[in-house]
Amino acid sequence: MSMVADRRVSVWQNRIHPNIRVGGSGSPVVFLHGAGGRVLDPFLEALAEHHTVYAPEHPALTDGDEDAIAQLDDLWDLIFYYRELFDVLGLKSVPVIGHSFGAMTAAELAANHPKMVSKLVLMCPIGLWREDKPIPNWMIVTPCSDLPKYLVHDPKGSLGSQLFGVPDTELQLRMVWSSASTGKFAWPIPDRGLKQRLHSIQAPTMILWGKQDKLVPVAYAHDFARPISRATVEVIDRAGHLFPAEYPERVAEMVEKFLK
Questions:
Q1: Domain extents for the chain?
Q2: Which residues, at least 6 apart from 54, have a Cβ–Cβ distance to it below 8 Å?
Q3: Cys-Cys crosslink for 205: which of 34, 54, 219, 231, Cβ 3.0 to 4.6 Å?
Q4: In CATH, which of 3.40.50.1820, 3.90.180.10, 1.25.40.10, 3.30.360.10 is domain 3-259?
Q5: How many C-beta atoms lie closer than 10 Å to residue 219's C-beta?
Q6: What is the pTM of this model?
Q7: How distant is the alpha carbon of residue 242 from its chain centre?
Q8: How open is the CA angle 31-35-37, to the nearest 5 degrees?
């Protein structure tokens, strides 16, 4: 993403110092990344054509601040942490977009602090659990060589090769650390009672899913939408869990249309 600034801020009684990537121009939106870290830059770049995009790194993913993960005990700490972070950034009542783990976090923010979120986009969120549709493999225990078949529609295509084709790359190491850091709040299953709080979401909500998502089945889409009073569901064919990376411009257009 063409960056306006890389902002380093202090949060949580000056104990966590995340980096916030800020790019684009226009009205602000916040993007919360998934368990694999920041792998959706082409989507953010397309989104930044119309918005100022704030993309905070999850605690412990900022270089030199890896111990930050020890400062947060549970999911509730994480949600309060993000409330503080929004305040530090001066963000009030903004659209929030989340992918996977980030979408679960965004949903919790919207349910617990409704005035913070003006519109909500949930991309294949985790956070619910169905015994008939269990999440088959969580990234924290999946070898990098096996991840493409869970994350992308075409494991042998260019995206799979780009992200996972060369073993032991810096990107893969960061993805493993990111999965471990987010897994603290979602392991062994991501159900933390979100289903009891979804009805509290007041923001207009769009739920996006890849039809061929093999990590979090598309059957969860309507489970998320049903309790939310103003929710719509869009399913993208020939798309996996990383559909914003598979179709960055198309997904950005869908999000932009919703935000308007």
A1: 3-259
A2: 20, 21, 22, 28, 29, 30, 31, 89, 91
A3: 231
A4: 3.40.50.1820
A5: 12
A6: 0.93
A7: 11
A8: 60
Other beta carbons within 10 angstroms of residue 77's beta carbon come to 14
d(CA 253, CA 260): 11
Q: 207: which 2 tokens? A: 């739920």
Q: Is 117 exposed, middle or buried (0-12, 13-18, 19+ CB in 10 A)?
A: buried
- Alpha carbons 123 and 100: distance in angstroms, whole number: 6
Query: pLDDT per residue over 158-193, tens digit each?
Result: 777 676 665 546 767 777 788 889 989 998 889 999
Closest CA to 90 of 200, 206, 9, 6: 9
